[in-house]
Amino acid sequence: MKNKFWYLLLLSGLFLSACMKPTTTGEEPPITDAPRATSVQNPILAGFNPDPSICRVSDDYYLVNSSFAYFPGIPILHSKDLIHWEQIGAAIDRTEQVDLSEQGISRGFFAPAISYDDGWFYIICTLIDNGGNFIVRSRQPEGPYSEPYWLPELNGGIDPSLFFDKNGKAYVVYNHGAPDRKPLYSGHRTIRMRELNKETLQVVGEELLLVNGGVDISQEPVWIEAPHIYQKDGYYYLMCAEGGTGYNHSEVIFRSEKVSGPYVPHTENPILTQRHLDRNRPHPITTAGHADLVELPSGEWWAVFLACRPYRGDHFNTGRETFLAPVKWIDGWPVINPDFEEVQYEYPAPATAQTSTASVPLNGQFNYHIDFTQPLDPRWLFLRNVKEAWYQSDTDAGTLSLQLRPETIAERGNPSLMLRRQTHLNGQITTYMEFTPEQEQEMAGLLILQNQDHYYFINKTADKLQLLKQTEAGYETLAEQSYTPVGVHLRIEARGDQYNFSYSENGVDFTSLLDGVDATYLSTETAGGFVGCLYGLYATSNGEPSKAQAVFDYVEIKNE
After folding, report:
1. 129 is catalytic
2. For residue 323, how many other CB atoms are within 10 A of its CB?
3. Residue by residue, what is the 3-state secondary structure of 329-396?
4. Of 114, 141, 146, 398, which shows the fewest CB atoms inside 10 Å?
5. What is the rounded CA–CA span in Å between residue 435 and residue 487?
């Protein structure tokens, strides 16, 4: 039995290695001899891709996002032109680095920041509820990254970033609680800094208080966070988010002649926000903030930041996404999106003079078909660490098999669940599954997930198809239909504020199981949390042992 256990672990490692391997998967033909892009299409990373951080090394750009309890953790993306991005790996791709067991879906990895210094790529992040702040590093941008260097001295700080001074010193700058842990009002936070020993990757010296409260503490500003420091023209610039990550989100800037301060706020803050605009404007982009700046070889500056595309007020299912906008320096201060009030869906392309090398688009209108004849690409997500071999990709047969296990999404473990982001308000996902249940409680199929208490699950059981709505009280059956064939095509269609669920025996003629299902139930406004919706392949025996498998032949995603 012990030998079997280690064999399963070995298989799991092999499967994860295949999942992490940067590859053009054959889902779409690679783009070759592509012309230089003439415009930016926002968001540059569609769907759940919040808290972006960016760095440039020569002519290459690297970006990371928050991943919360999803694994592999902290995706790493690469671009040559700031427009077309490709995921090349993940900073946390091994269970021995960080264990996400028991982490809530909106806990886990908060606000990573990527930087480069003297041949090393550094990623610093906060693991909420299970260790706090840490640094990992690698000589290669795609990894593998080191075991974490933990920073317990930050003592409850979040949103850390690293700053490498031109004089050779390094610093950690981060969001922390009020001075002496005595807040003057709700949301009172501070920005603090500690020096970092670059050899040991441990903080040294005294903690410095850089900003107390925000731009103007007399106005009781809330949630000063996500700090980054930049050097330009003899000044140190400290840029932070302010106002919370919701509708009142903004970006503010300070500067000082010394890295230790004092930091003086810009009189024209905020340098980015959308909170003052008409909420009823057409096709709004909201919640803009949590930005990072990058300078191009041409001398241009651009900003990445999170924002949302809501519908019906403040509902959004695609989560907080990554946007790109130009930056102008005006009278010694940076201004993001300087020529417009509204963040734009399209800008003229930056002067990167590069062509696209991305094999699969991550923004705009795109479709792709996964036939499982190639190794799994790194955009597949799992809920928490995969510790045993419960899935198998057979590239010869062109199938993906999921073992039914007792684990469910309601528990804080690792269920048999493989996920892709919902990237568009209008689109669809279709799959073909063969599944022969052996027991009544066994089910497998396709779902759209927001969190453990908010998802819809179209699935096959021993004798029927059913649509389930997960609530805090458990499953609610919305629709069911007798069905006995082994195979079934399942489809979830997103249509703004509704989802449609359908099935087909031949893959051509689809029959509605239920249309017009309320999408706001899965919106962040209703469900809470910090993540967006994800489509998933899910198989569970609901608490009982099982030997059954669900075998998937393809996944096709279409977007509008």
Report:
1. no
2. 30
3. EECCEEEECCCCCCCCCEEECCCCCCCCCCCCCCCCCCEEEECCCCCCCCCCEEECCCCCCCEEEECC
4. 398
5. 6
Q: Are 76 and 91 in contact (CB under 8 A)?
A: yes
- 225 counts as catalytic: yes
196: number of CA atoms within 13 Å, CB side?
25
pLDDT for 354 equals 65
Q: Pick the closest to residue 490 from 466, 474, 520, 472 (CA basis).
A: 466
Q: Find the Cα–Cα–Cα–Cα dihedral 422, 30, 372, 386, rounded to 10°.
A: -60
Q: What angle do CA 245, 249, 254 make, to 5 degrees?
A: 115
d(C-alpha 430, C-alpha 553), whole Å: 11
Which of 51, 81, 321, 407 is catalytic? The answer is 51
pTM above 0.90? Answer: yes
Looking at residue 467, what is its pLDDT?
A: 98
pLDDT of residue 355: 63
- Nearest Cα residue to 164 out of 229, 92, 238, 98: 229
User: Given this model, what pLDDT does residue 545 score?
Assistant: 94
First to last CA, the chain: 50
CA atoms within 13 A of residue 451's CA, in its CB half-sphere: 21
What is the model's pLDDT at position 357?
57
211: CB partners within 8 A, 6+ apart: 190, 191, 224, 227, 238, 240, 254, 263
Which run of H or E residues covers position 12?
helix 2-20
Contact at 8 Å (CB) between 531 and 105? Answer: yes
Distance CA 490, CA 347 (A): 38
For the chain, 560 residues long, the average pLDDT of each consecutive 10-residue run is 35 38 36 63 96 97 98 96 94 96 95 98 95 96 98 94 97 97 96 97 96 97 98 98 96 98 98 96 96 96 98 94 98 97 96 65 83 93 95 96 97 96 96 95 97 98 97 95 97 97 96 98 96 98 95 94
Tell me the β-bridge partners of 61.
56, 79
Contact 237, 165 (CB under 8 A): no
Residues in the chain: 560
Instruction: Name residue, tokens 């982009």.
Output: 285
- Phi, psi (deg, nearest 5) at residue 64: -130, 160
Greatest alpha-carbon pair distance for the chain in Å reads 73
Tokens representing residue 57 in the block: 């090394």
DSSP state of 405: B
